[in-house]
Structure formats: C-alpha cells, structure tokens
Amino acid sequence: MIYYLVSRLNPDLSTFELMNSASRYLFLATQTNYDPNTPYYNVFNVFTKDNDSIMIINSQEKILVNNKNYILDFLNMFSISEAEKTNKSSPINNGDIILFSDITPSNIISSTYQDLIDMGILEKDLVD
C-alpha cells in the first residue's frame, strides 16, 4: 500500500531536509561499497507542495539490508524509546530483506492519497 508522510503531521520529519535524510539512510542501508558523500539518492521519493514536505512510502517495498548501521541512523532520527529502536533493529542482520513496515517508528503518522486531498495539499481534480 502507498502511504504519504506529511511534514506538518510528523515533527521528526518536519522539513524537506529531514525527510530526505530519512530516505537517504534507507538508501545507504541497501548499498555496498557506496560513498555516502555522493549526491542524494533515496529509497522513497520526497517532494514539496506549498509549505509541506511529503515522502511517498510503499509499505511493501523490499529493502535488502547491506549496512544495518544506516537502519539505526534512520531510527535514531525519531523521538522513540531506545527500547523501540532496539526491538526494531535487533532482529535485522546484513543480508536480510525487510519491509518498511518492519522499521516504521510508532510515532509516524501516515496518510492516504485521499487524506492529502482532504488536507488541501492536493486538489481532487489532480486525481481524476
């Protein structure tokens, strides 16, 4: 299923830069021998619409973990307990295939496409 993370609903991802960093950590977690200083490459697209930053999440996206440390960096971006970070990251090993839903922090508020229309972020006629 496709979900959207909207900056105004997610204080830990309140700016385009923070959303981009979160997606970037997931990208870096999938890479082997990759220079983290290379320009932005992300697992999930991030864009801005008016005053909102939005990340498009495919909850069924398979993520092949090649560097678990970046999964921890991703989780450390969020205001969640250390216990939750440990519970989400401990079962993951390099070489595992995970879903975004496996590592979604509990304080994330996701929205549907219809929610974006209802919030006035997108116009209904853009959907038709």
Radius of gyration: 15 Å
| Number of extended strands | 6
End-to-end separation: 19 Å
Low-confidence stretches: none
Overall pLDDT level: 89
> Strand-and-helix sequence, N→C?
EHEEEHHEHEHH
Question: Helix content range of the residues, please?
Answer: 25-40%
Number of helices: 6
Indicate the structural class: alpha+beta
- Proportion of β residues? 15-25%
Strand order of the largest sheet: 2-3-1-6
Most strands sheet = 4 strands, antiparallel
Outline the structure in words:
The structure is a single chain. A hairpin with a 2-residue loop joins strand 2 and strand 3. This protein has six helices and six strands. A four-stranded antiparallel sheet has the order 2-3-1-6. The protein is of the alpha+beta class and 128 residues long. The mean pLDDT is 89. It is globular.
Summarize the structure in short.
It contains 6 helices and 6 strands; from the N terminus they run E-H-E-E-E-H-H-E-H-E-H-H. It is an alpha+beta fold and 128 residues long. The protein has a 4-stranded antiparallel β-sheet with strand order 2-3-1-6.
Give structural attributes.
four-stranded antiparallel β-sheet, 128 residues, alpha+beta, two-stranded antiparallel ribbon
Topology:
Elements: E1 2-6, H1 16-30, E2 46-49, E3 52-58, E4 62-64, H2 68-76, H3 82-89, E5 97-99, H4 100-103, E6 110-111, H5 113-118, H6 124-127
Antiparallel strand pairs: 1-3, 1-6, 2-3, 4-5
Helix pairs in contact: 1-2
